[in-house]
Design a protein that fits this description.
The chain has 170 residues and is α/β, with parallel strands linked by helices. The protein has one domain (15-163): Rossmann fold (3-Layer(aba) Sandwich), CATH 3.40.50. Helices cover 34% and strands 9% of the residues. It has helices spanning 37-45, 60-74, 85-90, 122-133, 151-166; strands at residues 19-21, 50-51, 79-83, 100-105. It has a 4-stranded parallel β-sheet. Helix 1 (37-45) links the parallel strand 1 (19-21) and strand 2 (50-51). The protein is globular and about 50 Å long.
Length: 170
């Protein structure tokens, strides 16, 4: 499935501020970004300003510096974050420097739980083991956004962005 064969919805309420998907720690065994390019393309086709900034795989200092520099260059008045609990905690020292309109944890997006992979793959177990050797935390396999590419998943994320737009600046 690609975003090219998905149906666009007319007249979606758009967020005023960009939506940033922040990827958790990665390794050779789990290298996917939080938001797949097809999902980002689908949301951009609806008119949303969405990003998934490039991040270092596991270096805490490198990841923190990269994210801080990227957010500073973005120069947005406010931002919406979508990330895992673990990733939020990892960057808690930089959040006060930015005006965050909303924070959404991946597993809290309504209707998304049914699209999350329920079993942990061997690759993800190896990823966790590899990171534990470096004393680096990683998020749960559910929060790693190991998602089946389905139109229902894309619609659940789109519904969530519409909800964010309805509640902006309240």
């Amino acid at each position: 499935m690609t975003s090219d064969n998905l149906v666009l919805r007319p007249n979606c309420l758009l967020t005023k501020y960009p939506v940033i998907f922040i990827t958790g720690t990665r390794s050779l065994f789990h290298a996917k970004p939080l938001a797949e390019p097809d999902l980002l393309h689908f949301l951009r086709e609806h008119g949303y300003l969405v990003y998934c900034p490039p991040m270092a795989f596991r270096s805490k200092a490198g990841r923190s510096d990269m994210l801080k520099n990227w957010l500073e260059q973005l120069q947005a008045k406010k931002i919406h974050l979508i990330l895992s609990h673990n990733t939020y905690s990892e960057f808690k020292h930089i959040w006060p420097q930015f005006n965050i309109e909303s924070t959404t944890f991946v597993t809290h997006i309504p209707k998304i739980q049914i699209h999350l992979t329920t079993t942990m793959s061997l690759k993800y177990k190896l990823h966790e083991l590899f990171l534990s050797l470096f004393k680096t935390n990683t998020c749960s396999s559910k929060e790693a956004f190991s998602l089946q590419k389905t139109p229902q998943l894309y619609d659940a994320v789109l519904d969530h962005l519409i909800n964010l737009a309805e509640n902006e600046d309240l």
